[in-house]
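Notebook entry, cofactor series.
This is the third protein in the set we're modelling with a bound small molecule. For this one the ligand is S-adenosylmethionine. I'm keeping the input format identical across the series so the outputs can be compared line by line later. Sequence and SMILES below, as received.
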Amino acid sequence: MLSYQHGFHAGNHADVLKHTILCFVADYLLQKDKPFYCHDTHGGRGLYNLQHPMAQKTGEYRDGIARVWGATQPPALLQPYLAALRAFNADGTLHYYAGSSLLVQAMARPQDRLVANELHPQEYLALRDNAAGRRNLRVTKEDGYAALKAALPPKERRGVVLVDPSYELAADDVAVVEALREALKRFATGTYLVWYPVVEPQRAQKLVKMIAALPVQKLLQLELYVREPVAGEGGMAGSGMLVINPPWTLEDRMREALPWLVQQIAPECGSSSVTWLNNADA
Ligand SMILES: C[S@@+](CC[C@H](N)C(=O)[O-])C[C@H]1O[C@@H](n2cnc3c(N)ncnc32)[C@H](O)[C@@H]1O
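Returned structure with ligand:
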């Protein structure tokens, strides 16, 4: 039984990391006229009112997007993300936080195609409502891992896959690795973004190791911590994104942007890293 609800966490530091990278990759794909495909295996609700009791209860967005939103000169990497988010907050005040599928939808052209899966019944209904009337985005109440397997390779032959589970279940880790293994057989040239939380450092390290053992030529690890992770302490000390087949500009942009994000979000105890786990060109 799924109980995770992203509404409690929307716009937190992990979302800022994840969505900054996602929008940067989408922006990179937009640089060619050819259409692209985006598959979001774990869609969430798509749009979050930050005045909703869920967001207000945890206030996580205040230590995430709220610390970035008003910045005068954010690094280039953040610009596609902040521009997409502005589409949901036209008066310049941060009222709404957009999730992965709606952010990419806001950036997409008529020729691009987006699919988002969401298994939780209520979250699915909310996603369906939030996606209603928005072109190109198809939402389904399916298991994201199975739906991804069925969708690949996309007819566009170029695109990005976001794998963003809540990791509520220990089984998620293996499911992520097996879904990637299957996906890479079908669509080896796609860009894959795999987000993971760092709550228990050992669990995160094990997942990263399993993904790095997949047959991928280029794998970039990007991490943002708001404090040092300590085994057994609980709570999310930070999170990471594994990027399979990253755009060639991503590494340098992240090296510039991550220290800036640390300064904005967690200047006292934060840290970040950019690491090649596999790099066939090195
Ligand atoms: C971290 S949230 C997704 C957030 C969203 N990707 C974003 O960035 O805005 C994870 C979501 O996955 C959903 N979920 C859990 N298991 C799933 C599965 N096997 N297939 C599809 N959705 C699933 C949960 O209900 C939850 O809404």
